[in-house]
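Weekly modeling sync, notes
Attendees: S.R. (lead), two postdocs, one rotation student

Agenda item 3: backlog of single-chain predictions. S.R. asked that every request posted to the team notebook include the full sequence so nobody has to chase files. The rotation student volunteered to paste the first one in as an example of the format we agreed on. Action items at the bottom.

Example entry:
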Amino acid sequence: MRTPIFTGACTALVTPFDRDGIDAAALINLVNWQIDSGIAALVACGTTGEPSTMEDDEWALALDTIIKAARGRVPVIAGTGGNNTAHVIRLARRAHELGADAQLCVTPYYNKSTHFGLIAHYKAISQDGSLPVIIYNVPSRTGLNLAPETLAELAKLDQVAGVKEASGDIIRLTDMMRLCGDSIAFYTGSDETIVPLMALGGLGVISVLSNIAPLETVQLTNAMLSGEIQKAAALQKQLMPLIHALFMEVNPIPVKAGLAMMGKLDDRLRLPLVSMGESNRAVLKAEMSKLGLLP
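Predicted structure, as returned to the notebook:
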């Protein structure tokens, strides 16, 4: 296997906003809190960070702020993925210049691609050589479900270091891992499948949950990495109601609501996303309270 970018828990970090743009002070505080809680890596401007509502310079500002706040303590992975291959490559080059350690590249959406198109897309990104690539499969967002056979071909590319698998389909995941062997690292992108994926040999999670429960997510992945499967399974079950609450509405609506309850940021999203509904907010608050996450 190529050297993994990280093992354990990586947070797909939210981007705090204020009236003028990015709330840099809140973002720096989040980075420090995450690292102090034991998080192994950070994704900047992934789906949870709302990059689709950012211009390129603002995307770069968010990434630069996170990299500088991290100060080399953990790897920072830049969300570069999109449905314009040339634009992905431009973002990867800029992320490299800013000091990112890797890039997270979602499969193309809307103008969805074939098996051969996906290979050509990721081959072009890999050949650019700016940053190692973690492929991101999230069919609920993209409308495209990466086939195990396609991933097996992509895993042969020099720059492809891993995959964030968020289909939630354990059978598909098992076939992916069977076909790829140990050539790349597997991370789950679905918090509800941390234990199943790691039991199959996956190295960790790129998590939404860890935005509000970093310590608990670290404890879960560390238990799996050390072979304490019963402990990890108990933690997974304990966290499931909160995980469900975090996806009652489109991510990152609930997780931003939760962080606002914790006093970490303003509950501010960019259209077309709006704040969490009151009935769902009450459910989220109750689950956070049960776990002692609220002040």
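Discussion: group reviewed the output briefly. The longest helix spans residues 229-246.
Action items: rotation student to repeat for the remaining queue; S.R. to check formatting next week.
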